[in-house]
Amino acid sequence: MPGEVDNEEDMPTPNGSLIVYGTLRDAALREVILGQTDHLRLSDVMLEGYRVSQVKGESFPIIEAAKGQSAKALRIDGLSQNDRARLDFYESGFAYDMVQIDGADIYMPPRGQWQAEGAWSLSQWQHDFGEVSRTAAAEVMSYFGQLSGADVAARFGMIRARAASRLRAEAGSGPVDGRLSRDDVSLFGHRTPYFNFFAMDEMDLSFKRFDGSSSPVVTRAAFKSADAAIVLPYDPVRDRVVLVEQFRVGPYLRGASDCWSMEPIAGLIDAFEAPQDAAHREAMEEAGLKFSALHTVAEAYPSPGSSTEFFYLYVGTADLPDDITGVGGEVGEAEDIASHLLSFDAFMKVADGGGLKNAPTLLLALWLARHRDELRAGIA
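The structure corresponding to this sequence follows.
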């Protein structure tokens, strides 16, 4: 992987020219990847005999040979060795062959790697995927010189999900009038000592105290995940719920003897997915359920002192017949999930008796107890 470069990293490379045809035409994305871009010379070009197409099921395009067609592209000249190392690192997760066109390198996708699906539009990509892609690129580039491109690429989906979570947080409501805010925190250091599907970040920071003074610089760590959708299926006609059961590593790591958790349906929200859509998708994957309606219960941090996790909690009304139970889950994610039917009274008895060790389950149980009559009357 591209790592440390020598003292001539800012000198032009023997071929400091690159032609880009897809997302790297976006100036803001290039700036995230390269840092400084003022030294580059840019010129629009047309690639005769090529077309740029959307990749089926993905957020990026491919370029293909196409007789009689032409593709808009951008030629970048003046790239330094460090520039090329950074670009190669970022692109390494997308699979490419390096070829030359008109004396400039171009990242060419291997034939047969992707399936094309219609024309690709830069402006449409910027509208639909630009913000998340740029935010994800910032995390990707934070690993430059530390991890291999392959390591980062294997976790790119989770990186994008975290990027979307960050954007939802930034778009959320600010503090109540007079309360302290993000502007009252000074950051002095930020590192990621652990990076896998999840990550762990450490920060050296100082925050404003309630008396107006600043705290000393302290080191704080947090588990870094993505936002999750959690939904409790409820049948207002039959007056019962579905809980799913699966192995959870948290209780196992803590030392508990019971490591299988009874809980609502839950899952991480994909990068380009709304929380409600994630709730519907997870219900189908884990229990084969379709909801007639979703009722928002809460949007909250479960453990803000140690984790970035943020939950979107719902009660979903659905038809829950006797044969709805079974075992499901995504095979590719090694999920083994059993679903269970409980009457409302049985659910409350378990909750009141301390049988539920999952906090979101208890929160949803309390909400359902308060709103059950409304749901059964069809007026919620």
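The domain at 18-154 is CATH 3.10.490.10 (Hypothetical upf0131 protein ytfp).
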